[in-house]
Structure formats: C-alpha cells, structure tokens
Specification:
Rossmann fold; 6-stranded parallel beta sheet; GFO_IDH_MocA-like_dom; alpha/beta; Gfo/Idh/MocA-like_OxRdtase_N; 2 domains; Dihydrodipicolinate Reductase, domain 2; single chain; NAD(P)-bd_dom_sf; nucleotide binding; 345 residues; Oxidoreductase
Length: 345
Amino acid sequence: MRKLRLAVIGAGAIGRTHIALARDHALFELVAIVDGSAPAQTLAAQIGVPYHTDVAAMLSAEKPDAVIVATPNATHADIGVMCLAADVHVLVEKPITDTLADARRLCAAADAAGKVLLVGHQRRYNGILRAARGIVQSGRLGQLVSATGMATFLKPDPYFDMAWRRRQGGGPILINLIHDIDLLRFLMGEIDSVQAASANAVRGFEVEDTAAVILRFKSGALATMTVSDSTTAPWNWDLAAGESAHYPRQDVNTHFISGTHGSVTLPRLEVWEYRSDRGWHQPLTQERIALHDTNPYAEQLRHFDAVIRGQEEPVCSGVDAMRSLQAVLAIHETAASGEAVQIGD
C-alpha cells in the first residue's frame, strides 16, 4: 500500500507533535514543513524534509496527498480552502476556525472538492474517553442528568509574550475550554443553550483568564464547567489524562458525569452504582476500569489515513467541530451580555 504524501503547515508546539509522529510513519511520508520561522527551517534541515514558507509554493512543488494545518486559528480557513482546492485532504487543528462564517466556508470547500476534512479534537481518540462513551451509550448510567467539569491550570508568564494571546479570542475559552465542550458533546449529545460569566481580574488583559459556564443539553441534562489559566491547580485534562509527556501527570479526576442509575469519573474511569436498592441511604459500589495509555495524536493520524482511503467514517468532521465552535462562541456572547444564548441547529 502506497504511503500518503503528508505536509505539516505550522511548526509550533502542536505542529512539532504532528511532525514527530509523521517521521518514519508506516502510513504517511512527510514531504514538507511549511512555516516562516528560523527554528522550523532548522528542524526541517535536521530531519531532511523540504522546507517552505509559502503554502501555495509547497502545494505546487511537493504535491502532497494530505496536509495537517497547525497554524493560528484565524488562518485555518484560508489555508484549508487553498489546500482543498488543490485536491488535498485536510486535518486542521482545533478550533476549526475562529468564526462560524469561516467554518462554513471551510466545510463547503471540502464538500465541493470531495476531500476529507477532519478537525483535531484529539481527545476523541483517547481510550479513556472512548471507554466512557461506551459506558454512556450502553445505558449503564441510565438517563444522563448532570455533569461537572474543571479545566483549571496555570499558564506561565512567557506564554503571553505573543500579543494575540492577550487579546479577545486568545484566552482559555476558545483555546482550552473548547476541548471540554467537545468532550461533553461527545458523551452527552448536542447542547441546547449556554449561560456564562468571565473575568480578567488576575492578569488584567483584554482577554479573559477565567470563566464559569452552565450548559443545557437537548436531552434535558445540565452541566457546569469552570476554566481558568491563572490558577495553581491540578484539575485539568492535560495534567490528569497523561496524553502528553510535556505535562507532569496528576492522579485526579476532572469530569464527573451523573445519571439516574450510575456515574462515571474522568479520567480515572470510576463507575459508581448501587448494589441493589437505590437511594442515598444505600451503599454504593465503585468499579475502576483499567486502560492502557494511548497516544490520541497517533490514533488520530492513523484514522486520517483510514478516512482518506474510505475505510472509516470521520470521528470529528468539519460540521461536527463547527458545533463545538458554535457553543464556545455562544459562551463568549453570553459572558458579555449576561443573557442565556440558544444554540441553533
């Protein structure tokens, strides 16, 4: 089976994760790195991969079958549309774009080209989340009632040296909370409405550093989420789930999903149920479901190949990812207005 020719556009932190996986890959041949920075040029030279600063020039010179777009959010649509128009399959990092108009434009371009458009909500490929989804879909928890989640952590001061991270759209709602919104959608279904409050009291930047959110799902279930990048705390997926060696792993839970007949915690995958009679005076049992660690980025890349070859259906299509973006943009809107925002179909 021929390897697919793959280019990575954007060689920042997440781009380098994709580059490292694509090197010597069984399914892909890494044929280009596109970036405008000296470190990216150095990396390309070190690993012997063609380096480009211009996407159009790379498409013409290298003729990839597929690209991974790991550039700033506002550039996703233009780059993705250009690649799709060149008959190239696209995996774009989350969020799909930073506006709904651009997300629709990107999805329309994929439909017109008849090419694959995947969005990198990598948690969906984590064995922990897939096991939790299986538990929910089995009916073991009964009717879903509520969920509580936390994404509380500390970004170091140098992180904000880039000006866009101090401005609207560069804060933890769009950059971080969108992961948790997508996680809850993956487990609990579509969101009906949101209400939120945000604050920038710690750093005083234009962008928020903290937000609290209430979500109402179409099923009638409710959820609350807290996100802050200015706290000393372990309660966030990156530290708790062990997806990346870049973060010191903490053995804590970050999400709690509750139903009429049981509950499950994440990422520890503890299932709580009554032994027989149900009621708060009765003893509860706890079963912890053990899983081997998985690399969701590696699974995502394998899946990208399988979707391109027509062997699997997309785990996170452009349209699916657009719904998570829509919810996050609604959170920004309600945080500014104080009024609940309905999520359209």
